[in-house]
Amino acid sequence: MCSRRINAVHEIVFEGSRPFGYFGWPTVAKLPDGTLAAAASGFRSSHICPFGRTVLWTSADEGRSWSGPVIVNDSPVDDRDAGLCALPDGSLLVTHFGSDTRIYYPAGAAMPDCADFRPVLDSWEDDIVSRHIGSFLRRRMPDGRFGKRIPVAASSPHGPSLLPDGSLIYIGTRFGVSKPDGTLEFKMDRFGGSGVVVLRSADDGDNWGELAEIPNPLPGTRFCEPHALGLPDGRILCQLRLEGEEYFSVWQSESADGGRTWSPAARIAAGSPPHLLLHSSGMLVSSYGCRRDGCGQRVMLSSDGGRSWETDYILRDDGPTGDLGYPSTVELSDGSLFTVYYQQPVPGAQCALLASRWRLPGA
How many CB atoms sit inside 10 A of residue 38's CB? Predict the structure, then answer.
């Protein structure tokens, strides 16, 4: 067990009400003017249901108060995850993926105790579902308007990352196969796709080119839910979730040539999925969830550019169940850190968006 515990102040970002008060898989980002944005899949009935919407909040006072929830996307299928990437012009990229819940509950399958949504699933027509499954991106303009929905051939919970040269990199589970006319044909299996693909954009996310795949080193396992970070020395660091060998764990690979080739991935820590941040001090921060041995939220720290890590600093270990995690972190104006994640605020409640304020050890 980890003995490193961080002194953190815990807060509630948003808590819904039953029966559609479940919120999960969030991301927090900081805009150039200091505004914080948080996004999640929300207004759900449960972890797997057909009702998920992509929801966005903003805060002008570093997370002490938040705007009311804004619905970014509400398709006929389940809209899951919500990634964010702040751009220098003040716009914000919001990502999500659409899931066909019928995969989990085929005709005749028992419904969960919390809700009977069989009538909703039975009403879905294949041609409608086919237009909404897959991975997508929308741009929120500085004035609050939203641009068109853009299909992307990869999906990851926290979305793309801005590199030091101004381009974007999006490393995620492959969600689409390019057709001769340049459009994407979406392929989705029970696990949300197969293979981790590296995409790059030079036009703020309007178009994406494929650079590589990050190979999986272990037969019978799969990588998913990665997050990438461009470092000042030109390297791109990527941490990924591995499933199959154990419940889930964080692995790491890096590229020294702009994302075209990648080092063999190595295991870093138990838990997942990761989110990477470069602090102004030069410290790297990786936030991740822990769903066993004290369920809650953890971080790992690196002072040498990700070549080594001090793992399993505990932000909190009071999660009532293992349905929690997906933390992401931003640095506030005074150098402190603000981490957003989801878990039950009290036993028996639906999952909500929570946050922790903390400082780097020794700061």
Answer: 27
